[in-house]
């Protein structure tokens, strides 16, 4: 569905260079700290910035050569952009109707009612949660085959986040070829939503793994200095020195559970994996 091949973008003090393959029919998570390069990747896919190297394909075509019909198959949420704040939902509905041949007005109206969104109030007067739900609704209401979602749940409470995630589950259930690329700082959102995870740090992909493998096989191990010196480190990914000894990120925690009774083994969890991938050595 999307292929980034040695894509490079240079800014002052920052250099993005990544390769990624986003599979059709999958939900792919993109995680990393602020400034790691997530938003730059979205802008590159959408041809909003000029690349310094590499190429991008979307729908098996050069991303720079997509037709208007192809672009209409993409639903987008960018963290720093949306319709003008002076518009209301009636205005936005008119814009969507005029912009997309496949705009599903019945679906749009149904979700507006379900979420209790005020149709006559200006967006600038919406709560943060209302604005997030409207962004998602705009991305979903024109039969898009690909969703590019940059931090769609940022700043939302638990209930609002779950409503957004439920919309995404419904979207994926409609068509087995529907595809999502989503970034989030809320690791728990991605743990049980995504099929695979790309982790980015300082403009480089530092980990790519199936979500199930991350959650079931990866783990954090805490060991003494003495045990660390004698351990088989075949599954070691990252090491961090602590006062008590070492914290280790491993890709096969069960091996250490079976063979080293004196070590403390914890679930990896995406938050802990991010921490160790960035802070570990």
List keywords for this structure.
281 residues; alpha/beta; six-stranded mixed beta sheet; 14 strands; elongated
Order of helices and strands: EEEHEEHEHHHEHEHEEHEHEEHEH
Number of helices: 11
Q: Which consecutive residue ranges, at least 5 long each, have pLDDT under 50? A: none
* General form: elongated
- Average the pLDDT over all residues and give the rounded result: 90
Describe this structure as you would to a colleague.
- With 281 residues, the protein is α/β, with parallel strands linked by helices.
- Helix content is 35%, strand content 29%.
- It has eleven helices and 14 strands.
- The protein has a six-stranded mixed beta sheet with strand order 6-7-8-3-9-10, with helices on both faces. The chain has a four-stranded antiparallel beta sheet with strand order 2-1-4-5, with helices on one face. Strands 12-13-11-14 form a four-stranded antiparallel beta sheet, with helices on both faces.
- Strand 4 and strand 5 (61-62) form a beta hairpin.
- The chain starts with a strand and ends with a helix.
- The mean pLDDT is 90.
């Amino acid at each position: 569905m999307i292929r980034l091949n040695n894509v490079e973008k240079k800014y002052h003090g920052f250099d993005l260079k990544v390769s990624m393959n986003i599979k059709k029919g999958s939900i792919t998570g993109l995680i990393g700290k602020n400034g790691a390069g997530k938003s730059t990747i979205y802008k590159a896919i959408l041809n909003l910035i000029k690349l310094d190297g590499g190429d991008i394909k979307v729908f098996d075509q050069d991303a720079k050569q997509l037709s208007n019909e192809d672009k209409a198959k993409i639903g987008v949420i960018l963290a720093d952009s949306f319709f003008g704040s002076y518009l209301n939902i009636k205005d936005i509905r008119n814009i969507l109707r005029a912009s997309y041949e496949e705009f599903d007005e019945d679906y749009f109206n149904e979700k507006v009612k379900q979420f209790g969104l005020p149709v006559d109030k200006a967006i600038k007067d919406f709560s943060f949660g209302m604005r997030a739900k409207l962004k998602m609704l705009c991305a979903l209401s024109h039969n898009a085959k690909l969703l590019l979602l940059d931090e769609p749940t940022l700043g939302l409470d638990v209930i609002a986040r779950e409503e957004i995630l439920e919309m995404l589950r419904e979207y994926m259930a409609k068509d087995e070829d529907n595809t999502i690329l989503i970034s989030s700082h809320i690791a728990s959102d991605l743990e049980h939503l995504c099929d695979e995870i790309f982790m980015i740090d300082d403009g480089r992909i530092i980990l790519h793994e199936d979500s199930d493998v991350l959650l079931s096989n990866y783990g954090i191990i805490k060991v003494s200095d003495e045990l660390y010196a004698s351990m088989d480190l075949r599954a070691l990914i990252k090491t961090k020195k602590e006062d008590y000894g070492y914290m280790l990120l491993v890709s096969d925690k069960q091996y250490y559970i079976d063979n080293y009774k004196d070590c403390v083994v914890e679930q990896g969890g995406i938050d802990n994996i991010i921490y160790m991938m960035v802070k570990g050595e």
